Predict the 3D structure of the following.
Amino acid sequence: MNTSITCRHRVAIVGGGFGGLFAAKRLARADVDVTLIDRTNHHLFQPLIYQVATGLLSAGDIAPTLREVLWNQRNTSVVLGEVVGIDLGSRRLTVQTLDHRSEIVYDSLIVATGASQSYFGHPEFAHHAPGMKTIDDALELRGRIFGAFEMAEREPDPSARERWLTFVVVGAGPTGVEVAGQLVELSRHSLRGNFRRIDPAQARIVLLDGSPTILGTFPDSLRQRGMRDLQDLGVEIHLGTVVKGVDEHGVETNSTNPRLRRIEAMTKIWAAGVEASPLGRVLSDAAAAELDRAGRVKVERDCTLPGHPEVFVIGDLMSLAELPGVAQVAIQSGRHAADTIRRRIAGDNTSRPFRYRDLGSMATISLFRALAAMGSVRVAGFAAWVLWLVVHVAALVGFRNRLSVLFKWTVAFLSGRRAERVVTTQQVFARHAMTAQAAATRPEATRV
Ligand SMILES: Cc1cc2nc3c(=O)[nH]c(=O)nc-3n(C[C@H](O)[C@H](O)[C@H](O)COP(=O)(O)OP(=O)(O)OC[C@H]3O[C@@H](n4cnc5c(N)ncnc54)[C@H](O)[C@@H]3O)c2cc1C
């Protein structure tokens, strides 16, 4: 695509996540042409991915298409494609859409490509322990989770059945805690009475973390409360336990306890560690910018790339003042970048530092139980759960999505059932992984 015939200021935004989308919206009434490029066609509300994986919500509930979100923003075009190259000298992006390659010229660039799962130098773990970063991850996990109960139902050998009914979650940050809580609710409540040969409530949910605590970023009182709540629900928590190996049948850990050194489990979920998008390395090579340990780009105080005031790096890809990789940092840094571009167009070239306003942290444990910390206020239990619910519904992008999520939650709360348990033949990887795992477990002829 060649946009060089336009005479307006051209802003290219790479990534339609929290940072990129909120930057684009902030430019709605600016005298600029905006091009938003994403390799997916949707904006993903990552905090609720685990609810898609566990059958509470559908993919569409948390992932409205970028075209629909921005349909009436006349100065903005959406491009589906992966940015594979950035030429800072000629101010051009190279975009790959399947086998089609094109170029986009910019005057200002906002790079908001986020982060992916880190397996701490063991990318091979990903095959057996998917992470939770994309809709594909969520649907694959859904296939594995519901598939595990199906396989357990068909399994005559008690130890193999136990292996199908053991779920290991690696990483006890908010995501790991939330998914562990959901697995308990799914097995103890939603699947009650659905099977004839197994009792899903017998499922063993194991939460592992190498650090000495769960929810490392939360205040101590809430961490303790979270531990107690999870243990009350029946989640087995093992802290200071580092995963050393992952294979189709289980995980190996550094524990000296023989029961934990190897945990037999067909379903493993990786919720530990993040690694910045590879575009961080591209920018660092092009501009000699420093990267931090997670591969995030060290930016100036106004979120610009050192030596390139026309390039902003925001959100999870940005390394600035040890700000955490959370949605509010992405949203606020996206708005800051957009505001800076607007001011420059109005003739004000002064550089203003990005100031982050911390709105607090939240995590749900289960139905009616959550934790919330806002400034010096700490709330746990039902009040925190109501707060969590209100904040998440309000933060979802799009009125229809809010309505749909609220409706599905209400039905799930009242009935205890989940509406989104469909696993389709399109979820090929999950199906193949399950087939391979089952074949490796026992010969076909002995299965009932
Ligand atoms: C499971 C999970 C739960 C979370 N829960 C919370 C929570 O409860 N509260 C909270 O505050 N934060 C939470 N976070 C963190 C929060 O979602 C991130 O901090 C936030 O999404 C970062 O926004 P971003 O715009 O930087 O990146 P993202 O939202 O990750 O968006 C990046 C976008 O860039 C696109 N992209 C990547 N590479 C390319 C490329 N080369 N070309 C084109 N497009 C590209 C991607 O498709 C994606 O759309 C959670 C994250 C996860 C994974």
About this structure: The chain has two domains: 9-117+275-345, 121-271.
